[in-house]
Amino acid sequence: MEARAFQKDWADTTASARWPSEGRPTAVSPKLSLECRIDLLFLLDSSAGTTLEGFLRAKTFVKRFLQAVLSEDSRARVGVAGYSRELVVVVPVGEYQDVPDLVRSLDSLVFSGGPTLTGSALQQAAERGFGSATRTGQDRPRRVVVLLTESHSQDEVAGPARRARARELLLLGVGSEAVRAELEEVTGSPKLVLVYAEAQDLFNQIPELQGKLCSRPLPGCQAQSLDLVFLLDASASVGPENFTQMQSFVRSCALQFDVNPDVTQVGLVVYGSQVQTAFGLDAHLTRAAVLRAVSQAPYLGGVGSAGTALLHIHDKVMTVQRGARPGVPKAVVMLTGGRGAEDAAVPAQKLRNNGISVLVVGVGPVLREALRRLAGPRDSLIHAAAYSDLQYHRDMLIQWICGGEWENPHPQGCTQDGPSTW
């Protein structure tokens, strides 16, 4: 055991000398800032699947990150933990004297080489990862877990990640391209995942991670004009109970908008055995009216076609004749269980070509590739593990809508009863 410990210490020591020689950023890279008030826990995969080199690379990344973004007056408090079979917290959140002391403390985190139990580590991190730094009420800072891994988990991650998010933890994932899908499942959104194709590219993610840590969802589009249509999968594959969960989610989203003819207009389309406009963009002039109408939307059952539903929106909802306003940003938010989406990629692109953004929320064991083709850009797709989890993705969805973070080639677009654009 002593020889093994010596080998780990030696590897840790030589790693810091090896990375700079490969042209990677050093500790004297341009200074960034981490001014937001957060409690931040780095969670490093120390399993055999990640390998000793991958573990050392992740640890060096954390050291570089801390040296680049932390200062004496930083409002962020940091902790570091490693895991394979069990979670080992080597630096409790906030329990260090200064940044050099924090960086030195990382040397006590050693490679364990056991199984990759990411799900268990997430659960333990949520329960005890923040230690004495945990506060309650408004006095509690935003709590963030940054997971670094290059290995697929050997246990289930969706449930523990969902419970961690339910504790109001923001989960961010950093890893190799090979584990992108799993990191998206952990975080709940491609927007919260940073991946690298080559090992040396990991260190280029430092500014990106800093930006995600201090960004917050916008409070809503209270002063932004928008034509917004929700498209709900009301087919038998979803079922009436899950459809009710979708309705609740749409109502919670609608609360974030100033609904009136001069600011935000909201429409709703449902599809299953048929496609039906529950209400058009100009049907309801107040938020209260929209909320009532969403509750009255019909569950249809049957077999649904997302492609037919999107064409319906293009031809019969997002048109000037049906209340759409020229020169106003437009978005379709589609909620689906994934079935019936195989025919939707071309209709979705048709909407985008007319300046209408399409954002996809897939729920449950969805057909990921079909939804990726439908969603287009990766950051236009959200995956919720269950319909009851939709609530945890509302703020991210609102941020995308209000921030206009879509690939929209014609932001002024609007259709007349057909494919021509304004």
TrEMBL record:
Signal peptide location: none
Source taxon at top rank: Eukaryota
Organism: Sciurus vulgaris
Gene symbol of the encoding locus: VWA2
Pfam family, one: VWA
Protein name: von Willebrand factor A domain containing 2
InterPro entries: ECM_Assembly_Org, VWF_A, vWFA_dom_sf
Lineage start: Eukaryota, Metazoa, Chordata, Craniata, Vertebrata
Start and end residues of each VWFA domain: 39-213, 227-401
Keywords of this entry: Disulfide bond, EGF-like domain, Repeat, Signal
SMART domains associated with the record: VWA
